[in-house]
Amino acid sequence: MCGIVGYIGSKSVIPILINGLSKLEYRGYDSAGVAVYKGGEIETYKAQGKLQKLKDLLGTNGNGDNANKIGIGHIRWATHGAPTEINAHPHVSCCKKIAIVHNGIIENFKELKEELTKKGHVFVSQTDTETIAHLIEENLKTHPDIFDAVRHSLKKLEGAYAIGVVYKDNPDILIAARKNAPLIVGIGENENYIGSDVPAILEYTKNVIYLDDSEIAEIKADDVKIYDFDGNVIKKKIECVPWEPVALSKMGYKHFMLKEIHEQPDVIRQTLSERLISSDLPLQLNEVKLTKESLKKLNRIQIIACGTSLHAAMAGKYLIEEFIGIPVDIEASSEYIYKRTISSANSLVIGVSQSGETADTITAIRQAKAEGAHALVITNRVDSTMAREADSLLPINAGIEVSVAATKSYTAQLIAFYLLAIYLAEIKEALPAKDIIKFKEQLFKLPQQVEIILGNKTEIKRCARKFHNAKDFIFIARGINFPAALEGALKLKEISYINATGYPAGELKHGPIAMLEDTIPVLAILMPGLVYEKVLSNSEEAKARDAKMIALTSSNDKHLESVFDFIIKIPDIDEIFSPILTTIPLQLLAYYIAEFLGKDVDQPRNLAKSVTVE
Ligand code: G6P
User: Which atom of ligand 1 is nearest to the CA of 494?
Assistant: First the structure.
């Protein structure tokens, strides 16, 4: 949510900032801006709308200008103040000597603004961020060194922030700080960078310092020093990120989303590799630190997550309860954090997050840990705040996910839950050995089965063509596929803006059935197993109300043709593993519908991939 980039060195800075921002577009895209040191002044350029608008504004401006050697850039997802040019970052102080970019929310900005206004500061935007620029300017009166002025200002801020600051009177120093919002420092040769995330700087350096909360960096072209807010030096590790810049290219696909959907067979292999070695050997989840003894004491498992990760969590609940018989509660992180935390030393709290930076989930995990719970984090980012604060870690190895709509990370999260549930069953000896072997054999087969679905895209595209003009869409399922119905609806909503809802099929007649008429498609996930007949009956009920019926099934039952207007076939699979296969056609369906409607698939309106504010 909001992307920050910064550079200090001897290269032309604007192209570096723009390139960095283009890699952070997934974090927000309602306006963008840069501030560079040019001709002895701090010049800012801002534009409302997508990054392209800023590129158009800049034109070739600055492209060959080697005098610009320090600058900061920002891509915004509006919180305070509409997404206008005035509210776009960077924000400057009254004297225009200080420019600042910020990600997060300053909770006490109203009080600070009032105080600063009384002292004569004039605000031009509606943002909380501008307060920081004025506060630094005010503090310069008593702390003439810009680094000290920034450091003292930070002590007055409440809320979450990652910031980058440049100062006209000292263009040899770039200042960065964080508290509850991610920020990294990229280390180059006689040049250094800041970024909200690794992709922003990956083309230039793989060596990074991850700032922790309440740390401030004093960055020069040839030196980086990190301090706490009291000014004490902190020794930090320089870490080498394991990614290649090619991970950020579309590789010939029209959209990142389509590329990422196609990566899923490999992602599954990757998530399984080194953990599932053979069906008759125990799973190797080396960073999960739960012993037989600690499991014995467990009386509560809670899974907390947001968005798509919350749907993976729901499937996880089903699996853990089924395999080890311990009750599991699921909660949206944003709900978990504003009530009494009922976790204890006998609780296991599982946080699920693609980014590992979702503010609500971080807070929820911290609250649970404060009550003594063991925190296990399932994440795609081992370099994230959540991963670093976790007691146990289960990385999902999905690779960088660029498209705002999560696809491959969801599938990888599901795989992680299969691994975890089987692993817990092994430790607790909760399942017969032959069942565990059978489950592992099924896991090995998954990538190939997903490949079959991806090879069958034409049918799904045909279905999308047929129904892309629908105004409402209903997804129904039961049991382990209910989260897949929710996720299918969420994908469609996110990228096509069609009003799509997922229901447990049995709930249809308790209200939603009132909506049904012949313009509404109802997609039923109908996998042979425990609930097949039930979902079929629920589908008949919808059919009787004239809904347009779509089946997603592996069944060859001829009777389906009389109930359904469209049948999407997927390979046969044990019901409990079927969410991996039912999810993929729903991702493709959403993708093709959005494509037919001409929507911006990778950057849907109003969304951001990483939500780093509460
Ligand atoms: C945002 C994204 C979703 C994502 C959710 C949780 O809303 O748009 O795709 O599922 O955040 O993110 P996380 O990184 O914690 O999985």
Answer: 8
Average pLDDT over residues 65-77: 81
Average model confidence (pLDDT) across the chain: 94
C-alpha to C-alpha distance for 28 and 604, rounded to whole angstroms: 10
| CATH architecture assigned to 256-450 | 3-Layer(aba) Sandwich (3.40)
pLDDT digits (tens, 9 = 90+) for 483-534: 999 999 999 999 999 999 999 999 999 998 999 999 999 999 999 999 999 9
> Ligand 1, from 609, 613, 614: best to mutate by most atoms within 8 Å of Cβ?
609
**Quick one: pLDDT at residue 61?**
53
The vertex-402 CA angle with 398 and 404, nearest 5°, equals 110
Residues 441 and 294 sit within 8 Å (Cβ to Cβ)? no
For residue 586, give the amino acid letter: L
The owner of tokens 């399932």 is 378
The domain ranges of the chain are 3-248, 256-450, 458-596
Cα–Cα distance measured from residue 119 to residue 131, given in angstroms and rounded to the nearest whole number: 13
What is d(CA 326, CA 314) in angstroms, rounded to the nearest whole number? Answer: 14
Find the 296 Cα to ligand 1 centroid distance in Å.
33
Helix (H) or strand (E) holding 311: helix 307-324
Alpha carbon 281 to its chain centroid, in Å, reads 33
Statement: residue 311 has pLDDT above 90: yes
Q: Do domains 256-450 and 458-596 have the same CATH topology?
A: yes
Look at residue 77 and give its three-state secondary structure: coil
Cβ-contact 545, 521 below 8 angstroms: no
The tokens describing 105, both together, are 């929310």
Any atom of ligand 1 within 6 Å of the Cβ of 404:
yes
406 Cα–ligand 1 center, Å: 7
Annotation: CATH topology of 3-248? Glutamine Phosphoribosylpyrophosphate, subunit 1, domain 1 (3.60.20)
Query: Residues 6 or more apart from 61 whose CB is under 8 A from it?
Result: 14, 45
CATH 3.40.190.10 fits 458-596, yes or no: no
Confidence of residue 66 (pLDDT cuts 50, 70, 90): very low
Q: How confident is the model at residue 68 (pLDDT cuts 50, 70, 90)?
A: low
- CA 321 to chain CA centroid, Å, is 26
Record the pTM: 0.86
Instruction: Tell me, yes or no, if 609 is annotated catalytic.
Output: yes
Give the residue from 14, 76, 16, 20 showing the smallest Cα distance to 47. Answer: 76
Cβ of 609 closer than 6 Å to ligand 1, yes or no, is yes
Q: Judging by beta carbons within 10 Å of its beta carbon (0-12, 13-18, 19+), is residue 597 exposed, middle or buried? A: middle
* Cα-to-centroid distance, 404 and ligand 1 (Å): 8
Q: What atom of ligand 1 comes closest to residue 355's alpha carbon?
A: 14
Atom of ligand 1 nearest to the CA of 406: 9
Catalytic residue at 2? yes
